[in-house]
Amino acid sequence: MVLPGLPVNADTWAPVVASFGGARAVDLPGLGMSGGRHDDWPTWLTALITDGGARHLVGHSIGAAAAVEAAAAHPTAVERLTLVAPYFLQARPALTTQWAPLTRGYLSHVSPDALAKRLTGTTAHATALASSVADLRRGTVAANVSRLLAAAAKPRWREALRAQLRRYPGRVHVIVGSDDPLTPDGRALLDALPHATVTVVDGANHHLQLTHPEEVAKAIGHW
């Protein structure tokens, strides 16, 4: 089960998910095509695990936060975590500086070309982001994304996620781009876990599912 990051939707993970039989990507409540809001995450994640049978959670960026929170609430049910570009183990400027202009107004009017340029440095992925842009113009999605981007930069949430990850007894695989690395503290945290591995995708940045889908799929599949 893949939990996408911000400000994109589950469609951006389609090339990766297609590599695995039975896998699927789902938008978190309040994001993409999913209704609800951040307050609904605990109940929704519990249902995903207990009713949906999700045992391996793959979370990207903010989705990595949701995956860790789900594992903390259900440590025996979630057997393993794959955390792709987990922002709380990376430098804060990667989130705060990069996303500072992404206010609600910007997000609700951004074009696929402009969003692709900001996220990947090129417009080559604009088509892959078309449905994400459409979602950002729907209802309260842009506002929800803007609020989550601000919340994700707060030290208190970042440290809470680190503490939950330290206590998680299962297997952990972290995948990051070489241009979006872990902090020394983040790497030290993972090195201290008994069942953690790290894969670095050369030349990739924060949205490596868009720019390097084959490498991400291979990293997930080989673990």
Overview of the molecule:
- The structure is a single chain.
- The protein has a single domain (2-104, 148-221), classed as Alpha/Beta hydrolase fold, catalytic domain (Rossmann fold).
- Helices cover 46% and strands 11% of the residues.
- The protein contains 12 helices and 5 strands.
- A 5-stranded parallel β-sheet has the order 1-2-3-4-5, sandwiched between helices.
- The radius of gyration is 16 Å and the shape is globular.
- The two termini are 15 Å apart.
- The mean pLDDT is 92.
Instruction: Tally the structural domains.
Output: 1
Global outline: globular
- Given helix and strand content, the structural type is alpha/beta
List unreliable stretches of 5+ residues: none
CATH architectural designation: 3-Layer(aba) Sandwich
**Any idea of the CATH class?**
Alpha Beta
* SSE topology string: EHHEHEHHHHHHEHEHH
Q: Strand share of the residues?
A: 5-15%
The biggest sheet, with number of strands, parallel, antiparallel or mixed sense and barrel status, is: 5 strands, parallel
- In total, the number of strands is 5
Cα distance, first to last residue? 15 Å
Mean pLDDT: 92
Rg from alpha-carbon coordinates: 16 Å
CATH fold name: Rossmann fold
CATH-level-4 superfamily name:
Alpha/Beta hydrolase fold, catalytic domain
Query: Helicity range of the residues?
Result: 40-55%
Name the strands of the widest sheet in spatial order.
1-2-3-4-5
What's the topology here?
Elements: E1 2-3, H1 14-17, H2 41-50, E2 56-60, H3 62-73, E3 80-84, H4 93-99, H5 104-109, H6 112-120, H7 130-136, H8 141-152, H9 155-167, E4 171-177, H10 184-192, E5 196-201, H11 208-211, H12 213-221
Parallel strand pairs: 1-2, 2-3, 3-4, 4-5
Helix pairs in contact: 2-3, 3-9
